[in-house]
Amino acid sequence: MKPRIVVFSGAGISAESGLRTFRDFDGYWHEYRIDEVATPEGFAANPELVLRFYNQRRHEVLAAQPNAAHHAIAQLERDYEVTVVTQNIDDLHERAGSSNVIHVHGEIIKGQSSINADLVVPLTKPDIEPGDLAPDGSQLRPHVVWFGEPVLRLDEAMEAISRADKMLVVGTSLSVFPVAGLVREAPAHAEKVLIALDVAHPPQDYQFLAGRATELVPPLVQRWRKERHDT
After folding, report:
1. What is the mean pLDDT of residues 119-129?
2. pTM of the full predicted structure?
3. Was 8 annotated as part of a binding site?
C-alpha cells in the first residue's frame, strides 16, 4: 500500500494563478459587504446581486490556469495515495490532475438548489441567471458555502487527515475555522509541512516554510517522490 499524503490548500495557492482572495488587503471583502453577497439572507434580499457576484468569480476561475504548485501536487499521486482537502471553490487542483479532491467550501463551477443544499448539479453555462431553476424547481444558486452554512464533507476530510503519513498545508493563514482546525488532526508520526507567505501562529509540530507555493511546493514534492524511489 502506498503511503498516504494529505494536502490542505487555501486561497494562497489559487492567488498565484491570478485569482484574488477574499480576505487579503486587496480581497473582495474590501469591496463587498459579506452580508450582502455571502449569506443566505443576502441572497434572499438581492439574488440578482449575489448571482452577478459569483458569475464574475466563475468567469475568473474559468480563465485561470493551474500553476506549478497545483501540477506538483498532482504528481504526488504517482508515488502516494493523495487526498487534497481544499478551502478553495475553484477547480484548479482537478485541472492539474489531482483525482481525489474534497471541497469543504463548495465548487463554484457547480450550482445547487436554493432550498436543498444536497441537490448539486453541474452548470451547462458559465452564468446562473434569475429564473434558472434547479431540478426541484427552486432558484439555482452557486454551490458555495456561505457564512452561517455548514462546511461540507468535514468528517471525510478529518478521516483522511487522521490517517496521513505526510501532511502538506499550503497557501493558507489558518484563520478560517472550523476548517483550519483540521490540520491539527494529523497523526503525531506524520511529517508535517506548512507553506505560506505569512502565518501568525504556525502549529508547533509543522515545519513552516515562508514563501510562494509555486517556488516551494515543487522542490518539496520532488524530495518526497525521491524518498519513495530510494526506498
Report:
1. 96
2. 0.93
3. no
